[in-house]
Amino acid sequence: MQPLPRKSPHLQNTHTVSICLSKGLGAPVGTMLAAPQDYISRAVRCCKSIGRGLRHVGILSAAGKLALEDMVNMLETVWHLGISLEDTQLTLQKLQHSHKRLRAQ
Q1: With contact defined as beta carbons under 8 Å apart, do 73 and 79 qualify?
Q2: Are 32 and 16 in contact (CB under 8 A)?
Q3: What pTM, to 2 d.p., does this model score?
Q4: DSSP code at position 13
Q5: Distances from the Cα of 83 to the Cαs of 7, 73, 79, 86, in angstroms?
Q6: What is the DSSP annotation of 36-78?
Q7: Is the pLDDT reported for residue 22 higher than 70?
Q8: pLDDT in tens, 28-75
Q9: Residue 40 and residue 34: Cα distance in Å, rounded?
Q10: For residues 93, 94, 96 and 99, what is the CA-based torsion angle, rounded to 10 degrees?
């Protein structure tokens, strides 16, 4: 396991970071955990105790590696799409609320 090369100033007060590779990066499955070694060891034991082991190997691992190497530039685009979707949802909620208020009059 490789240590993180540098700490992000955004994460300076954070103990553990979980990164999902399937959200916005395009990998079919996978999550990375960045934490102190003792915490990662506990997390691995916990996952194994509930039936989740290191079963995603081979092609699935290759998809995760590809996501990290080639799809990272898509994160900003996906983030902006998420913000746009949230704004649209809030606008729709306001319109629905206004419509209900008008119908009640």
Answers
A1: no
A2: no
A3: 0.46
A4: T
A5: 26, 17, 6, 5
A6: -HHHHHHHHHHHHHTT--S---THHHHHHHHHHHHSGGGHHHH
A7: yes
A8: 777 778 888 999 899 888 878 887 665 556 677 777 778 778 877 777
A9: 8
A10: 180
Give buried/exposed letters for 2-25 (b at 16+ CB in 10 A, else e).
eeeeeeeeeeeeeeeeeeebeebb
Given a contact cutoff of 8 angstroms between Cβ atoms, the answer to whether 27 and 63 are in contact is yes
Residue 75 · residue 24 · CB < 8 Å: yes
Residue 23 structure tokens = 């959200």
Query: The tokens of 33 are what?
Result: 């955990």
Tell me the C-alpha distance between 19 and 25, whole Å. Answer: 10
